[in-house]
């Protein structure tokens, strides 16, 4: 008998999990409510698609493992490859970081292009995967304690039932899974929300003919000084700049042209404004707002239906400022492969529950990084940090303060931010002693004149 899997949602999380399921199931269907474009293009189901998306090093490494040849696709489409440190200009609350080779390389690519390339690779390499577009999933079908498929309606057609041995919800933040489970007599998962109320405003520009020597500019907000605004400029494919302003705690950037520029001018460094004030716009200003971080605790369900798992933003949606979502989706997909490799089909009872418990542990570091940072802002709503959390925040502040002066600490922090290392590396004695040593020194303060210019690249650092 053939085995079937259904994935709800054809975004990046859904495509990555389809890639995994194609190894184990005879037939895999990805059901997407949007029409899927034949080229890199925007679609309604990804309203944040026009904004900056960071592909972290861990995410790119995992995606290239899952899709051999994807790195060649990045080159083909013209996605710039940068080295963190040398090609980045990064201002934290401690000031500008020194610019040296951290050894961490990534491609900068728009969300729409990345999704298109993954979808193209998936269709080319796995003929047992079918993409069903323009089809809305209305609910789950079940027999006893097992989910057996979905009810879905093609646009303009009749509602039908599709049968599956495994249903994966990768439908994103707007997932209806809690309601569907309640309809079937299950409890809805508990939720943890940390609401920092983030707003984006993004505009696409033509890269200037004589661009700066950085390919990524990132200016971080600084809650210690009451600065709720930040910005980023990403060089992406086709010689374009993806330019985004962000505000936290409802300090939303405006979407009119003059307001966009003035918001950029108000940042603690003039580097952003100077970079774009004479650049040629290629688009209007697009806005996007989101409450913050939300974690649905499927791992805590007292009764979990068999044959149904939830992944991606449907289970954990992060503050997009930290660029973790796509990488976490790849981590989850690799986890699913690991568990399926050790399991025979049909899936045994307890598999779905065990997966959700393993997933909760796998995403914990990313969740703590995002929410820990958001809880620094006074207007953030959610569980307030306890004594241990306050110590971590205090220590992180010390790390940020000394990063502009210490290559070793910066490299460790960059690895943590790219999810290639656990946050605990920053607590190792060798790192903690360096932080303490710098704290005992005096004079580590950025002056206004030093904030006005990006540090030059360096090939070596004397510590």
* Mean of all residue-level pLDDT scores: 94
Roughly how many Å is the radius of gyration?
23 Å
- CATH homologous superfamily of the largest domain? FAD/NAD(P)-binding domain
Quick one: biggest sheet?
8 strands, mixed
Description:
Helix 1 runs parallel beside helix 4 (111-125) and helix 2 (57-66) packs across helix 8. The strands form 4 sheets. The chain has an 8-stranded mixed sheet, with helices on both faces. The protein is 32% helix and 23% strand. The radius of gyration is 23 Å and the shape is globular. The protein is an alpha/beta fold.
Features of the shown structure:
463 residues, alpha/beta, FAD/NAD(P)-binding domain, D-Amino Acid Oxidase, Chain A, domain 2, 3 domains, eight-stranded mixed β-sheet, 18 strands, 32% helix, globular
Briefly say what this structure is.
This protein has 463 residues and is α/β, with parallel strands linked by helices.
What is the element layout, followed by pairings?
Blueprint: E1 4-8, H1 12-21, E2 27-31, H2 57-66, H3 70-77, E3 81-83, E4 88-92, E5 95-96, E6 105-107, H4 111-125, E7 129-132, E8 135-143, E9 146-154, E10 160-163, E11 166-169, H5 177-183, E12 190-206, E13 216-219, E14 229-236, E15 240-247, H6 257-265, H7 271-276, E16 286-297, E17 308-310, E18 316-317, H8 325-341, H9 351-362, H10 364-374, H11 387-402, H12 407-417, H13 429-440, H14 448-451
Helix pairs in contact: 1-4, 1-8, 2-8, 3-4, 8-9
